[in-house]
Amino acid sequence: MEVIISQADVVSKKAKFAYSVGHVLNDLCASMWFSYLIVFYHRVVNFSNASAGYLLLIGQIADAISTTFVGFESDRTRTGLFNYGRRKTWHLMGVICVLLSFPFCFNLCVKCEHSDLWAQFIYYTMFIIIFQFGWSCSQITHLAMINELTHKDDERVALNSYRYAWTVISNIFVYAIASILLGFHSTTDETDITSADAYIFRTLTFIVIIVGAICMLIFHIGLHESTQPAEDSEQRLQLSLTSSGRLKRMTWRRFLREKEFYQCAFIWMCARVILNVTQVFLPLYIIDTISTINRVFVAIAPLCSYVSGLLASFPMRAINKRLGRKATIILGLFFTLSSTVLFWFISDLKDNLHIKIALISACILLGIGTSTTNICSFSLTSDLIGLNTECGAFVYGIMSFTDKLANGIVIAIIQQFNPCTLASTTICASYYRYILTFIPIGVAILTILMTLTLWKTNIGGNRHELEDDEQNNIDTTNENEHDERTPLIT
């Protein structure tokens, strides 16, 4: 059978590297956002638990709305600004917004740090909204480029793995720097974080911005995006024939009519909820639930989680190929469930050494689980889009919309009912223990059940149709040429 390739089958190593670092700025900022936002606004700025939760919710809502908007507009864009490329133009816009706004999100209110808390709340809200819009621009367009760089399945998995590997590296970098800053700049209380530590977050933020900006230069200089108008690409795609017939041209309405679209969105959402809820409340769990160990573990524990996640991402391509996407997701979820068992029993231990060993072990299991499920959820979405790159940004936008909204609502609810005050109590210790155990367990079980509903589904593989005149031509060809097949486009 003759095989015609409509775009590059294998992405060059240079292009893979440039692509993989294209989300590093977002990843560095997201690491601080989810790990230290509640800690910073509650313990440093002195907002209430509910107010800190509402700031995160506002950011997640702004992000969710922005992803949908960016998804639509990025797909509609022709060649981008000055023929720079439609995806890279939006990506660059996002980078500028993030660089200009994020430093203000983790710094005391400039010239207003002694103002009323409601005024400071408005101040931070403005910069958070700008930051989240920029973050969405970069994230959605970066994801949408995967299906435009290659149509080959294992190459897409590789790009997702490299992308996630740099996500993990970014988190490792943030936690490593945070552990150094928290360890070497000790205050009188070595087990807690207070307003006296504001300069630590400020320093960490500027380091994140500088490193992220360097990676963005590598991405924009090193990766070439086709400047061909999107409509021309769509027309070629619409005219593509496979042995099963003409590939349907998908619109956003057609995607919304596919059952698999909602199943993949649910799995994506759950994978991100597990990752982000554990990322947000792990530092608070360490400070309040197992309060006997040094505060430097606020950085060391998640660092161990992301190191194990990085190591788990390397064999992901081979594991996906051997077990299949869905079985690999379930395997990752079992690692996550194993970590929750340890999180439940850690606070019952009395010896500090045993507590540290159990905490690190739980974080390693959690890192393997979240890395596996997130890479596979990204790959499932790539499968859903398939050859239909004309709506790629929209699909990723809706996926991101679901997870941003779900994360914001879940975390805001947790903070609304949070019984903790600045003074740690027994009820506070139990609260974070419940959060870090039962929410991941519940979400993981739901994800397993949803994955099983997709077990025999060929995601994105049933979008071919034959028109009557084409069917007649193919029948004639089959009679005259002894069942010679139409060339396959992959």
UniProtKB/TrEMBL annotation:
Please list the GO terms describing molecular function.
symporter activity
What species was this sequence derived from?
Answer: Adineta steineri
Q: Which UniProt keywords apply?
A: Membrane, Transmembrane, Transmembrane helix
Q: Which PANTHER family does the record associate with it?
A: MAJOR FACILITATOR SUPERFAMILY DOMAIN-CONTAINING PROTEIN, MAJOR FACILITATOR SUPERFAMILY DOMAIN-CONTAINING PROTEIN 12
Q: Name the GO cellular-component terms.
A: plasma membrane
Q: Where is this region: Disordered?
A: 466-490
* Pfam families given in the database record: MFS_2
Q: What is this protein called?
A: Uncharacterized protein
